[in-house]
Amino acid sequence: MSWEPSSDSLFLGECVCSSGSLWQAWTSGHRIAFAAAHGDMKPEGLPYTASRLELRGGLSDLFVTRMLFGGGVELRLPSTLEDVSDLRPVPDHQEVWVDSESEASVIVELLEREEEVEDSKIAEHIFSGIATENNATDIEIIAQRRLKDAEVPNLMAHLMCPQRWISCWVLSGSQSVAKFRETTRDTILLHLLVARLPNVDTDLVISLNQPISVDTSVLRSEFARTSVAVGFEQGQTLVEDIARSLRVRNWSLFGGPDM
User: Fold this and answer.
1) Sheet with strand 82-83: strands edge to edge
2) Mapping DSSP to helix (H, G, I), strand (E, B) and coil, where does residue 1 land?
3) What angle do CA 70, 33, 17 make, to 5 degrees?
4) CB crowding 58-75: b at 16 or more within 10 Å, else e
5) How would you list the strands of the sheet with 247-248, edge to edge?
6) Rounded Cα–Cα distance for residues 129 and 120 (Å)
7) Tens digits of residue pLDDT in 207-226
8) What pLDDT does residue 49 have?
9) Is 0.90 surpassed by the pTM of this model?
């Protein structure tokens, strides 16, 4: 008998398995489950897991809204990412989300604005700082640009200051890093979104860490292997999708009055 969605389940979209059967994807918490779109049928040999199904529309169909920093910041993240604070302490100025199989992660940080750094240089400055902190080698900036206001509509529509004060920047690059005490190094793609918020003296930084050279033989699912192999363009698209959903809901989070 097929799984039945409950009242607290969120519909993600339709999907299709390898046999061509049409299914509906639902999520409840961090779990993804599937219900038959037509009739009471079950796909032979397929477990109820996204790793064995191809969702129509790509990763965007797996996004869910997350409320960060006590509800002060809202954005949409892939539903496969788990909140690291459920496993270990995370600094108050950070939110850390990780995919346990692919080792991809998203970190959201609220940093004190560095006034001496020009807006056009801020993403590169933060990228270099991360490389220094991680003792990275083979550092390369692949692309960077300023986002148009229309690419961050939710942020620009709910400001406490003139739009011209705000600038948002994206940067993609690669670094070679060693994890913990390991001697071998993994190459990661690092995608940054930096929103400069001078009205609250804050740089809001979102970083997507995307491993591209790890031992994929140890990964259990096809979805995880695909996540590791996914390329530069898809990482960029993911960050741009997050940017479109970014919204500050409570400006008092930064120490000022709320809207």
Assistant:
1) 82-83, 94-98, 105-112, 202-211, 186-197, 167-177, 137-146
2) coil
3) 135
4) ebebbbeebebbeebbbb
5) 63-68, 73-78, 247-248
6) 16
7) 999 887 544 444 444 444 44
8) 34
9) no
